Amino acid sequence: MASPTIPGNDAEELQRLRGEIAALRLELEETQKSTTQYLQNVAHQLTAPLNAIKWNIEAIKDEKIPIPRKKSLLSSIYSQGTILVHLIKNFSLMSNLEADHELGQFRDQPEIISPLRLAINQTGDFQPQATESSKKLEVRMLTFDRVFGDDSLRVVKNLIAQALSNLLENAIKYSYTGTTIYVEAITKEMDGESWRGISVVNTGFPISAAEIGQLQNRGFRGNAAKQKIPAGTGIGLYLADKVMRLHGGVITANAKGSETRITLLFPPSRIVRQAVRSDP
User: Fold this and answer.
1) How large is the average pLDDT for residues 97-107?
2) Which tens digit of pLDDT belongs to each residue from 238-270?
3) CA-based angle 183:169:35, to the nearest 5?
4) Hey, which residues does 181 pair with through a beta bridge?
5) Whole-angstrom Cα Rg for the chain
6) Distance of CA 103 to the CA centre of its chain
7) pTM higher than 0.70
8) Domain boundaries, the chain
9) Separation in Å, CA 198 to CA 131, 235, 256
10) Which of 224, 232, 227, 233 is nearest to 255 (CA)?
């Protein structure tokens, strides 16, 4: 029995649909592959600090360990705990930020906060981690006085704090041993207006000009970073970028040699003059 003949137009439509199905199948396979790799990275990122905390606690229980050494171990536990909390916050933020972008609005109400106080508090949280890896953190307070003066930021405090934390965590992770990471305020003219922001500047693994524009892409990590520190999720700057976009701001990245500057830039609409602030 002969097969039915398909009219020309229908045959073309059928071929087109087959092509779309094949493309969708390939896209699904790539998505499943990248998701599996991402989850493996997440598991590793969570396991590392948990194991470090466990080993340090076991060492502290040893009566032969001298008190000075136990103090050092306690500092390490605090540092690893900070890393763990930071990772969990980032994973939780991912779904919430997607929902916020779809809604086009914040879940939480913006508050008026001090940029300098924000920088000092977030830097303080990461001091133990920096010290443990033989690096320093320094807030350049004079730059905040010069750039912000008595002005404040109207932002969602927890989101901006997490964005700045992501910059600090990356800077500590990818800086050279013995270097200092600086947190400072800057101004930049954009679209005829003066935008103000908070920069994290570090000296570490070089980032090529081609890589700079991809740093905010989900899962992206520079070649030097991947070679030196294989484990990583590549979501820190991705989340920071989403946070800034929700605030009408931007995140910028500049690299010159081994020095990298990542900046959270706020538009004039986020700058307010306020004597009373809700500091983070």
Assistant:
1) 51
2) 778 888 888 899 988 888 888 889 999 999 999
3) 140
4) 137
5) 23
6) 22
7) no
8) 11-98, 109-273
9) 22, 20, 18
10) 224
Q: Which amino acid is at 271?
A: I
CA atoms within 13 A on the CB side of 134: 3
One-letter amino acid at 122 equals Q
Lookup: tokens for 79: 């540092």
* Amino acid occupying residue 47: T
Count of residues in the chain: 280
CA distance 137 to 1: 81
| Fold classification of 11-98 (topology level) | Helix Hairpins (1.10.287)
Higher pLDDT, 109 or 85: 109
Average per-residue pLDDT in the chain? Answer: 76
Residues whose CB is less than 8 angstroms from the CB of residue 219 and which lie 6 or more positions away in sequence, other chains included: 34, 38, 233, 234, 235, 238
What confidence category does residue 272 fall into, taking pLDDT thresholds of 50, 70 and 90?
A: very high
The domain made up of 109-273 is a member of CATH 3.30.565.10: yes
